[in-house]
Design goal:
It is globular, with a radius of gyration of 17 Å. It is an all-alpha fold. The chain has ten helices and no strands. It has a single domain, classed as TorD-like.
């Protein structure tokens, strides 16, 4: 589970040196197979060979200015609907329970969600959160990238593969985002409370 702490670090606003976290990630990814190691190479090069000001500009260009996708899981699933408010309350409760410092970001901000995963004591709840909420949101984020060459798209793809590997053969059903509802409402729509998602496949 510690691998998700390291990936979270790469999704935060760029600060400091990345060599240590990149080296740790490279070693951890070897346990998942060579294909993921190969996918990580351009990501590693980006974070270890690019000056910090350029890393920051790239981050802002990706997520803030003409944002390619949003890093707040609840917004990806619910948009501006009131359902996101309930989701944020639930996430805040879990973050506080786990004593996970969210800094100035929302509790559903992707780096905060990733650092929460290793701290969740109930493995069933961790699996439910990942499969029903996090993975559908990440896949939707991937689909929103305008170019395939964006470094954060590579990182998202790696993250999805890691989560699918760690939570394979799950009995929980992923939420299916309804694209027609999104287009009609002008926002993401879900209508489910992730703390109550207990539907399983038998």
């Amino acid at each position: 589970m510690q691998i998700y702490n390291h990936i979270a670090h790469l999704f935060n606003y760029p600060k400091g040196d990345y060599r240590t976290v990149v080296e740790k990630l490279h070693l951890e990814l070897q346990e998942y197979g060579e294909s993921l190691v190969d996918d990580f190479l351009p990501v590693a090069a980006h974070f270890t060979s690019t000056p910090t000001p350029e890393l920051q500009e790239y981050y802002i260009r990706t997520f803030d200015v003409n944002a390619t996708c949003y890093l707040d899981i609840g917004y990806v699933l619910f948009g501006e609907e009131s359902k996101r408010g309930q989701f944020l309350l639930n996430m805040k409760s879990e973050q506080l329970k786990a004593a996970n410092d969210c800094g100035t970001e929302f509790p559903d901000h992707l780096p905060n969600v990733l650092t929460l995963l290793p701290r969740i004591e109930d493995p069933t709840f961790r699996e439910e959160l990942v499969v029903t909420m996090i993975l559908p949101a990440l896949k939707h984020m991937l689909a929103n990238f305008r170019t395939e060459e964006n470094i954060y798209r590579y990182l998202l793809k790696i993250l999805v593969e890691l989560l699918e590997t760690d939570f394979k053969d799950t009995a929980f059903e992923p939420y299916q985002i309804n694209q027609k509802e999104i287009e009609c409402a002008g926002a993401y729509s879900c209508g489910m409370d992730f703390t109550k998602l207990k539907t399983k496949k038998y």
